[in-house]
């Protein structure tokens, strides 16, 4: 009864297909605003439903903690990317996406995930943005390990 209420002001965006998630994530990523990336992380209500569906017994504060950990990890990785592109003077809006690479997998519990790498090009330089997408209740979300790299 004294649980903290859900204070999130966003609802997660539900994507049934991973290519659609990648396209909308690309559009949000070039805006350079972390607020645009929040809907790609499952919100507390969706996580609670997922844990209930999987018959995992979590209290509300444990679900909130899991969601906040995913969100903070994405925020930390986003800040690293912003520092890197500022240091290298790269404008993400001018990069052209050339290719998408999907590496699907399943863990021992049957949970699906995918290592997604998006390749970009600008004049003679090549870059990549990669992340791990997770599938929860037949919907894809951004999970972890958001990286920006220069390909030599």
Structure description:
The protein is an alpha+beta fold. The chain has helices spanning 18-29, 44-53, 60-88, and strands at residues 96-106, 112-122, 125-136, 139-151. A 4-stranded antiparallel sheet has the order 1-2-3-4. A hairpin with a 5-residue loop joins strand 1 and strand 2. Helix 2 crosses helix 3 (60-88). The longest helix is centred in the middle third of the chain and has 29 residues, at 60-88. The model has no long low-confidence stretch (mean pLDDT 87).
Number of strands: 4
* Head-to-tail CA distance between termini: 56 Å
Helical content stands at 25-40%
Low-confidence stretches: none
Strand line-up in the sheet with most strands: 1-2-3-4
Number of helices: 3
Shape: globular
Mean pLDDT: 87
What composes the largest sheet? 4 strands, antiparallel
Strand content: 25-35%
Oligomer: single chain
Return Rg in Å.
Answer: 16 Å
Q: Structural class, from helix and strand content?
A: alpha+beta
Topology order in helix (H) and strand (E) letters: HHHEEEE
């Amino acid at each position: 009864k004294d649980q903290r209420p859900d204070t999130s002001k966003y609802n997660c965006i539900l994507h049934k297909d991973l290519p659609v998630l990648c396209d909308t994530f690309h559009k949000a990523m070039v805006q350079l605003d972390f607020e645009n990336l929040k809907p790609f992380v499952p919100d507390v209500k969706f996580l609670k439903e997922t844990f209930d569906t999987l018959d995992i017994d979590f209290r509300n504060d444990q679900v909130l903690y899991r969601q906040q950990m995913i969100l903070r990890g994405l925020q930390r990785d986003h800040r690293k990317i912003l520092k890197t592109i500022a240091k290298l003077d790269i404008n993400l809006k001018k990069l052209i996406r050339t290719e998408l690479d999907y590496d699907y997998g399943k863990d021992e519990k049957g949970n699906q995930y995918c290592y997604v790498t998006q390749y970009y090009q600008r004049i003679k330089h090549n870059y990549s943005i990669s992340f791990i997408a997770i599938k929860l209740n037949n919907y894809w979300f951004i999970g972890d390990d958001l990286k920006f790299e220069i390909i030599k």
